[in-house]
Design a protein that fits this description.
Helix content is about 45%, strand content about 30%. By secondary structure, it is α+β, with helices and mostly antiparallel strands. The strands form 2 sheets. It has a 4-stranded antiparallel beta sheet. A 3-stranded antiparallel beta sheet has the order 5-6-7.
């Protein structure tokens, strides 16, 4: 399955443009969602432990768990639907904002000047996440908490080099025709 080249399509894909890979942020980017799940449940579990003779208080942790699941679901949707699509021509960042909002930013691979990555210390090494910085003439695209930033960095470098070579070959044929 790993060597298999599947042609996938995404919304906004152009004719002749091939999808290279898709990546998203590391699951650790959802830690606020995990806290949102655990904290309401833990707080609502305290009263039944203190007043054990009141059986109605034992329903309180169920309510805390339901509230936590709603908070967790919100953060999961934000994480899951925020993706980075890399094609033969561009990087497309699709960011989910709330339940209904979406932001899309596109960056042509041939306009990229530099790509770098950083692994933030012990936790980044242990959990395998880091930050990728993509520099262009107009500004930087900073992607925090990327899963396996070294592998993603190498894939991005290859995609940029191929796009620059492709553009150079295109410009050379255009120059020869003139």
């Amino acid at each position: 399955m790993k060597g298999e080249n599947k042609q996938q399509a995404f919304e906004g894909q152009r004719e002749g443009e091939e999808l290279l890979f898709i990546f998203r942020r590391h699951i650790i980017a959802m830690r606020k969602g995990f806290y949102g799940l655990l904290i309401p449940f833990a707080i609502s579990a305290v009263p039944p432990l203190i007043w054990q003779d009141n059986l109605q208080l034992f329903l309180l942790p169920v309510g805390g768990l339901l509230l936590g699941l709603i908070i967790f679901s919100y953060h999961f949707i934000l994480w899951y639907y925020t993706v980075y699509i890399v094609t033969t021509e561009r990087i497309r960042q699709v960011t989910q904002n709330g339940f209904f909002g979406t932001d899309v930013v596109e960056l042509r691979l041939s306009k990229i000047q530099n790509i770098s990555y950083n692994i933030p210390g012990f936790s980044g090494e242990v959990f395998g996440y880091g930050t990728i910085v993509i520099q262009t003439f107009v500004g930087d695209l900073v992607i925090h908490k990327v899963e396996h930033p070294d592998k993603t960095y190498n894939k991005l470098q290859d995609a940029v080099m191929n796009a620059i070579e492709k553009q150079g070959a295109y410009e050379k044929t255009e120059f020869e025709e003139a």
